[in-house]
Design brief:
Layout: E1 8-14, E2 19-25, H1 39-42, H2 48-61, E3 63-73, E4 76-87, E5 90-96, H3 99-132, H4 138-201, H5 207-238, E6 247-250, H6 251-268, E7 272-277, E8 283-286, H7 288-305, E9 311-317, E10 322-328, H8 363-373, E11 377-382, E12 388-395
Parallel strand pairs: 7-9
Antiparallel strand pairs: 1-2, 1-5, 3-4, 4-5, 6-8, 9-10, 10-12, 11-12
Helix pairs in contact: 3-4, 4-5, 5-8, 6-7, 7-8
Length: 396
């Protein structure tokens, strides 16, 4: 159906998925979507189990977004993007061939479903009030009160849908983070277990062998600790609990501290770490420790991916009313198809650290959120094979 207008449907079911009415049907499914049929019977056979899981999600959460179900249309299954909500004892399921159209129809169906019920209640209230007080003001009073309550109910329902959607997003994110953390922790945990058991069972190892194994245990545990700390930071940020304590900060002095901390690490790989400041001071309001975390992350990445006998340069300048810090390396650069995902959690490039250094895939995601929390932006410019430059720009 590519290139054709988006089509869709809307069903009202009971909690068990039995169809009560077809509210919208561009698919002309009257023979299948008849009252009394089950939702699992109406969708394509391969989606029947997913339809049952959708009903289970509604029973637990009250709302479900962006479920993909196949529906027979003109002899072949057609993918629908579905949204659903529990409305009292019933269930509303709305689907369309594009996500945008599905969201639009879902919202319209909610308003129509609620509007029909409210219109009926209003009519009954007005009729009853007229019988009790013909020609009086009581009818208008009841009508206005009902309108006020309806507006409050509408606002409460919208807020409930928003909160449910946010909870669903956070729950999916939690599951994603847990899955990725388990995957990332498996290898270092296995190394720690293997080498510690080997050391326990072999007392006659040479000092060099023992030091090598203890070094692996130390490095693996350090990686695990960093991953857990990054996960806790990302969880706070994604839950909206990023706390920034702004105070007057000199970006030049902050850059000098970060360069001093990372200079020894760079020297171990024969990399020259340089600072170039276009101004002697660059004052701004910022959370200095969190900003140092950002610059430190950019510096450690630059050193990690730089070959020996190259330079990593930190530049501080003031373009217009902004404060800008750039970290430039002479490493392999970033492949063009990987740049858009570089700042997402657990995303790493296909380029490996020059000394095999591991990466949690969280540092850049955390850094971008911290910078954006300051009202700034973080981006990268890179020509693959010719290094990369990361820019932090903040209000000065």
């Amino acid at each position: 159906m590519k290139g054709e207008p988006a089509v869709g449907l809307a069903w009202r079911c009971d909690a068990q998925g039995t169809l009560l009415a077809a509210l919208d049907d561009d698919f002309r499914q009257a023979d299948r979507a008849r009252p009394g049929a089950s939702l699992a019977e109406v969708v394509d056979g391969a989606s029947a189990h997913k339809a049952q899981r959708l009903l289970a999600t509604l029973a637990e959460a009250g709302v479900a977004f962006d479920w993909e179900l196949n529906v027979p249309f003109e002899g072949r299954p057609t993918l629908l993007y579905c949204n659903a909500a529990r409305l009292g004892p019933d269930v509303l399921v709305v689907g369309a061939t594009t996500p945008h159209e599905s969201a639009r129809r879902f919202y319209q169906a909610l308003l129509k479903t609620q509007g029909d019920a409210v219109a009926l209640l209003r009519a009954v209230a007005r009729e009853r009030a007229e019988r009790l007080d013909p020609g009086g003001a009581r009818a208008d009073t009841l009508y206005n009160e009902l309108s006020r309550l309806n507006n409050e109910l509408t606002a409460a329902q919208r807020e409930l849908f928003r909160q449910n959607a946010e909870l669903e997003r956070l729950n999916a994110q939690k599951n994603y983070f847990l899955g990725m953390a388990a995957h990332e922790l498996r290898n270092p945990l296995s190394a720690i277990r293997f080498y510690s058991d080997f050391l326990r069972r072999n007392e006659n190892l040479s000092e060099a062998e023992r030091d090598r194994m203890l070094g692996t245990i130390y490095d693996s545990s350090g990686f695990m600790l960093q991953l857990i700390e990054d996960l806790l930071t990302v969880s706070k940020i994604e839950a909206g609990r990023l706390e920034l304590h702004h105070q007057e900060t000199d970006l030049v002095a902050l850059a000098e501290r970060c360069v001093a901390v990372h200079r020894l690490l760079a020297q171990e790989k024969n990399i020259a770490l340089r600072l170039e400041a276009a101004v002697p001071r660059l004052p701004l309001l910022a959370d200095a420790p969190k900003l140092e975390q950002v610059v430190g992350n950019l510096l450690s990445n630059a050193v990690k991916f730089s070959p020996a006998h190259t330079d990593v340069t930190v530049r501080v300048e003031r373009p217009g009313t902004a404060a800008r810090l750039a970290v430039a390396d002479q490493g392999p650069g970033i492949p063009p198809d990987e740049r858009d995902h570089l700042f997402e959690p657990f995303q790493t490039t296909s380029v490996q650290g020059t000394a095999g250094e591991p990466s949690t895939g969280l540092g850049l995601a955390i850094s971008r959120r911290i910078v954006e929390g300051h009202g700034g932006r973080l981006w990268v410019e890179s020509t693959f094979g010719h290094g990369a430059t990361f820019y932090v720009e903040l209000p000065a």
